[in-house]
Design a protein that fits this description.
- By secondary structure, the chain is an alpha+beta fold.
- Helices cover 40% and strands 21% of the residues.
- It starts with a helix and ends with a strand.
- This is Nucleotidyltransferase domain-containing protein.
- InterPro entries: NT_sf, Polymerase_NTP_transf_dom.
Length: 100
């Protein structure tokens, strides 16, 4: 996994602050492969709350919080409530992903 311990802690803290302490965070995509270089940070996040009004606002707030802690860079967020159906993209992220 190509994230430092400091970056992992920053991600986990930001997710807990914006989406709650029970949110589960997984890194997937190119940053999981130690043999690759560069690439964006792909995060799959599962929350225990149903989709709410302001869901998009929460995603924007999380993006902003991550940029403040990690610096401006490409971060892709895939957020799913436990009550939403598991789609193929979610399954792929869970199969490839590393829980932070």
């Amino acid at each position: 996994m190509r994230l430092t311990d400091t970056q992992v802690d920053a991600i986990k803290d930001a997710v807990a602050e914006v989406l709650g302490p029970d949110a589960r965070v997984y890194l997937f995509g190119s940053r999981v492969d130690d043999s690759r270089r560069g690439g964006d940070i792909d995060l799959y996040i599962e929350v225990h709350a149903p989709p709410m009004p302001g869901w998009l606002e929460a995603k924007v707030a999380l993006q902003r919080c991550l940029w403040e802690r990690l610096g401006p860079q490409r971060i892709d967020l895939l957020i799913r409530s436990d009550e939403q159906p598991l789609r193929p993209i979610h399954r792929d992220a869970l199969q490839q992903g590393v829980r932070l």
